[in-house]
Design goal:
Blueprint lengths: L4 E12 L45 H13 L3 E2 L2 E2 L1 E5 L9 E5 L5 E9 L5 E13 L3 E5 L2 E5 L6 E7 L6 H17 L12 E11 L9 E6 L2 H20 L7 E6 L4 E7 L9 E2 L6 E2 L2 H9 L5 H12 L3 H8 L2 H16 L4 H23 L10 H12 L5 H14 L3 H7 L8 H14 L1 H8 L5 H12 L6 H12 L1
Parallel strand pairs: 12-13
Antiparallel strand pairs: 1-10, 1-11, 2-6, 3-16, 4-5, 4-15, 6-7, 7-10, 8-9, 11-12, 13-14
Helix pairs in contact: 2-3, 5-6, 6-7, 6-8, 7-8, 7-9, 9-10, 12-14, 12-15, 14-15
The structure holds adenosine-5'-diphosphate, magnesium ion (MG) and zinc ion.
The site of zinc ion has 8 residues, from loops.
């Protein structure tokens, strides 16, 4: 934290809606197998409407409105029951009409908020200024000496979610973004794929003397598409602006781009003001009139939201808040956790006893394996049934914590049953007293000095004996049981 200056951050998020068709025509918004239209043959996914032919008329996709409503209702927004599409005029080769259909003065959602967990104990309320619907542009493809335009993406539906300038640090911005990402994916309105740009963020950043009321001049960092890069870009930009202002310079309002390889932001162009776009209501589209009954139906149909799920995980499953926060950040991790707990409940374990170990393995080992291999947990061969078995066998001390890791790695790769892996790899701990006693006796006989010290009160040596017995049994003894037996033997 800088002693003299503070930062002010507002984020604009574009979330691509996962509808079947585009926002104003019948062209596909995603391919049949769910992949991006960008992967279809160049310009194969176009029609006169999205290619901007003169006279072609747009027709609004009802599902887009429904998805925007879900987003607004989940983030405490006011819904404008009459909202209007406007033309945002600008020239870009990938924008064939010469304007983007968006919403301006009368967006569908206004004035919401999000309560964001910014640390273990603290939440911060971040206000939302608006959520509006708009169309995506096409894509320019550059070659040496010339460029071509691919309009497959033109007309794919987006919502833009605009926060108030309520964020103060890169970490807060990151927490807000993660929270919003978890919401739109939980709502099923956006696939959240950041690499493909389906959830991307423009970060507005300014600095001002600490405690000042007025906002400083902001810059806008465009289209950053990873949580970590957003945080790093903002961090760089704050430092740049502070240095500039302290040196007597002035921040100019401009659009900048983040270069992740060099970790710095670069000026792209001076920033347009809203009036430069000559917004006006689109004469080809009627105002959108929403019936209260439909809004209520959508409200009732909202799924459990990440914050609610987190509270439930803590309350019903005894999961630690930090683990719960990680789990609900990803729908598939949360589902995996619940399925594992359900398996364990079926075999008689209390949900509150099952929750903690299931969460620990998921947040720790399984996420580590997933990161290491660039996969989602659900893409591995390991199922909730496997994890439930691991939890059960560890609890019953049939396998050790180390053994459990080995078993998980193998099930992750092969999908074999846990029982068969435990047997094949000889991971069953020896918990049979009769089988352990000879090994213990042997260790005791071989270490008279340590035995004497232990008997004289040097309790710490218990670990030494357990270690020796583990060695003697090839790591297969149940260490807790060995500890008990050694103690009984020597006292
Ligand atoms: P535009 O759409 O042209 O970028 P908006 O007025 O809609 O302009 O503002 C967009 C974003 O900029 C909002 O998220 C808002 O919170 C943020 N913002 C506005 N002023 C500042 C400022 N001085 N410092 C930081 N963020 C700001
Ligand atoms: Mg902007
Ligand atoms: Zn089309």
């Amino acid at each position: 934290m800088h002693p003299e200056f503070e930062a002010v951050i507002g984020l604009e998020v574009h979330a691509q809606l996962s509808t079947q068709s585009k926002i104003f025509c019948g062209c596909r918004a995603r391919l049949a197998d769910g992949t991006s239209v960008a992967d279809a043959a160049v310009n194969s996914n176009t029609c006169p409407v999205c290619a901007g032919h003169p006279g072609a008329l747009p027709v609004l996709n009802r599902r887009v409105v429904e998805y925007a409503l879900r987003a607004g209702l989940a983030t405490n927004c006011r819904i404008r029951t009459t909202n209007v599409f406007a033309r945002k005029n600008y020239f870009y080769p990938d924008l064939p009409k010469g304007y983007q259909l968006s919403q301006y003065e009368e967006p569908i959602c206004e004035g919401g908020y999000l309560d964001v967990a910014v640390s273990e104990t603290e939440t911060k309320r971040v206000r939302l200024q608006r959520i509006h619907m708009e169309e995506d542009a096409g894509k320019s493809v550059h070659f040496p000496g010339y460029s071509l335009v691919n309009l497959n993406r033109a007309g794919v539906p987006l919502i833009e979610i605009v926060s108030a300038p309520d964020l103060s640090t890169p970490a807060e911005a990151g927490a807000y973004l993660r929270s919003l990402h978890a919401i739109v994916t939980a709502l099923g309105i956006c696939d959240g794929n950041m690499q493909e740009g389906n959830f991307r963020c423009d970060a507005n950043v300014s600095v001002r003397p600490r405690g000042a009321r007025e906002l400083g001049t902001r810059t806008e960092i465009k289209n950053v598409n990873s949580f970590r890069f957003v945080e790093k870009a903002i961090e760089y930009e704050i430092a740049r602006q502070i240095q500039l202002v302290k040196g007597g310079g002035k921040v100019v309002q401009e659009t900048r781009t983040y270069d992740s390889d060099r970790n710095l932001t670069l000026s792209m162009r001076s920033k347009e003001e809203a009036e430069d776009y000559r917004y006006f209501p689109d004469p080809d589209l009627l105002p959108v009139l929403l019936e209260e009954a439909w809004i209520e139906e959508i409200r009732r149909g909202l799924p459990e939201l990440p914050e609610q799920k987190k509270a439930r995980f803590i309350r019903d499953f005894g999961i630690a808040p930090a683990d719960a926060a990680i789990l609900v950040g990803s729908r598939e991790l949360a589902d995996f956790c619940e399925a594992t707990i359900a398996e364990l409940s079926r075999s008689g374990m209390e949900p509150r006893a099952a929750g903690k170990p299931a969460a620990n393995w998921l947040v720790g080992e399984l996420r580590r394996l997933a990161n290491e291999q660039g996969l989602e947990v659900s893409q591995s061969c390991l199922t909730p049934g496997h994890l439930a078995d691991v939890v059960r066998l560890t609890q019953e001390q049939v396998i050790s914590g180390q053994g459990a890791k080995t078993v998980i790695a193998e099930a992750w790769r092969t999908g074999e049953t846990i029982a068969s892996i435990v047997d094949a790899q000889g991971l069953r701990q020896v918990s049979d007293t009769g089988a352990l006693v000879p090994a213990i006796d042997k260790v005791i006989a071989a270490n008279p000095k340590q035995v004497a010290e232990f008997k004289a009160g040097k309790e710490k040596l218990l670990g030494f004996f357990v270690g020796q017995v583990m060695k003697e049994t090839g790591g297969k003894a149940n260490p807790a049981l060995v500890g008990d037996l050694v103690r009984k033997r020597l006292k």
